[in-house]
Write a structure and sequence with these properties.
It contains four helices and six strands. The chain is α+β, with helices and mostly antiparallel strands and 183 residues long. It folds into two domains: 69 residues; 110 residues, Alpha-Beta Plaits. Strands 1, 2, 3, 4, 5 and 6 form a six-stranded mixed sheet that branches. The termini are far apart.
Length: 183
């Protein structure tokens, strides 16, 4: 090699080396960016799975809490057994809230598998504060009450009590004859 060739070959080799190094660094940058993006996606998926696990745990706890509030009775449980339970429970609610009940009328039992719903239509004349207290206590009651329907009519004159039409349901889990041992 001549001197001129050596002069050009060293910078050429350095140039090629720099291009290779730049290509390698670009490749490393792209790989690092893709890896960082994948890590962010995996963290988001992990956070989402964690949130779903917490929601599932809350739902299972709520299910256990609700199951504890729903009483179990024999499969032949009817309104004749349930009505005294509900009237006793409603009497306590009324005494606590000062919202007297005018009428009570049982509706037909609604069956859904082993779950029986006992709807009870009632009317009352009360003020808003007592009604609110009554509904809050009904929501917290054990055995559980559910408000199926609520209609509120204002009094005819200013200062008259509200007329409230309300359907409350009490839920009962009926045990099958196989579970109770009966035939």
């Amino acid at each position: 090699m001549t001197l001129t060739q050596k002069q050009y070959s060293i910078p050429l080799m350095l140039g090629i080396l720099l291009v290779c190094l730049a290509s390698f660094c670009t490749y490393q940058y792209c790989v690092a960016a893709a890896t960082a993006h994948a890590i962010v996606e995996q963290r988001a998926a992990l956070d989402n799975a964690h949130k779903q696990a917490k929601a599932l745990a809350r739902a299972q706890a709520d299910e256990k809490h609700l199951a504890a509030k729903i009483t179990r009775h024999p499969a032949n449980w009817s309104w004749s057994e349930q009505l005294p339970v509900m009237v006793s429970q409603l009497t306590t609610l009324v005494q606590d809230c000062g919202a007297p009940i005018d009428t009570l009328q049982p509706s037909p039992v609604v069956m859904h598998g082993q779950l029986a719903r006992f709807p009870l239509h009632l009317t009352m004349h009360t003020n808003l504060a007592s009604l609110t207290k009554f509904l809050q206590r009904a929501q917290q009651a054990t055995p559980v009450f559910a408000v199926d329907q609520l209609t509120i009519h204002a009094g005819k004159k200013n200062g008259d009590l509200l007329q409230v039409d309300l359907t409350l349901s009490s839920y009962v889990m009926l045990e099958s004859s196989r579970q109770t041992g009966d035939r």
